[in-house]
Write the structure tokens for this entry.
Amino acid sequence: MDVQLKKGLLEACVLAALKREESYGYKIMAEVSPYIEISESTLYPILRRLEGMGCLTTHTLEKNGRLRKYYMLTEGGHRRLLDFVDGMDEFQRVYRFVSREALM
């Protein structure tokens, strides 16, 4: 899969995983990985980028003597997720065209 396309899809998956509740890295990976391949080395830069864009906020809690960083979706993150969903109609039209032409 094209790297840029996958980057955008992974970003949307991370936002979707955080839509209902705050979460931490390992749990986000577990929720996203059945749909698209993701590793820690991919996830954490995405989380940092989304936080830098104002799409996520974070807080830290202690769990079993270790600190765990939790990520929460902001209003900006909700809007970015909705923008992704709105853009899927166009993506599906392009996919149908490309796949039809590739198989002819």
